[in-house]
Amino acid sequence: MGNFADVLIDEGKRKNSVLVVGLDPDINFFPDVLLENVDTSSNESIANAIYEFNKIIIDAVANHVIAVKPQLAYYEVYGSYGIKALEKTISYARSKELIVINDAKRGDIGSTSTAYARAFLGNGTISGDMVTVNPFLGSDGYMPFIDVAKEHNKGLFILLKTSNPSSYEIQDLKLENGKLLYFKMAEQIEELASKTVGINNYSFIGAVVGATYPEEAQKIRKTLPHSIFLVPGFGIQGGKAEDLGVFFDENGIGALISSSRGVIFSYMNQNEDWKKTTETDMCRHITEAAIKAKEQINEVRFNKVI
To answer: What's CA 216's distance to the chain center, in Å?
Structure first.
């Protein structure tokens, strides 16, 4: 049995990329070509358009990213048809040899977490290769994900220091011993990660650390030397390429950088009349945005000052 951290690292080396593209389909930002025959009062019709949109993105970025990250809310909002679009998207991404990270942010009491873990990390139709997990119900909420991930040779990212502006309200609370809550959580993750490392000395138990908090990330990196970071918030959310070096180790590995809107809706930045963008132009703009993001990240991670 391997360790999924090694799969991530090997894929990163093979593609010379650590870029993840989020699949956050919002039909308000779809060009007319994808909406010509869509009945916006029909969840089935919208879900079909979402799948077509995702296929365009996957085709455009497949050679330049190591993973896609469907944000489940954008599918669940359309009920069973949305879930079907998610299933088809996962299958299509796999046909292009892409890793699938389900951005589900799940976490519950033990028995329910086990069910969530089987859904997202098992062998079902919405199962990906990794899933994001909310740890704030305690260890019986996230341990089932670790157990199922280990059983199926998959991985997870535990929410730690997220990219949203209000994350400090809870995550930065100071405990009686003076430590911040997210640092206490980091110590608990490291205790598990250090015991489950692969050949590259990283664990399949990763952590979510936002690109918008590079100073905090530098400290977290020292506390979590065995966890790969999933780093959201790069680009539109305010995370800067020049700040990303602290997320990586001295070999330029140890983190996956996620970009969603900055890549998948990049055609909107080209002209005011983006609604008339053709499918060919969509694909070109998305590919160019993915290449640019990949190169910006590589420049930082390979030229960081230790």
So the answer is: 19
CATH classification code of 4-301? 3.20.20.70
Please confirm, yes or no, whether 154 is among the known catalytic residues: no
Query: Which of 13, 55, 96, 105 is an active site residue?
Result: 105
Going by pLDDT thresholds of 50, 70 and 90, the confidence category of residue 232 is very high
61-71: pLDDT as tens digits? 999 999 999 99
Q: Where are the domains of the chain?
A: 4-301
Backbone angles phi, psi at 107, to 5 degrees: 170, 130
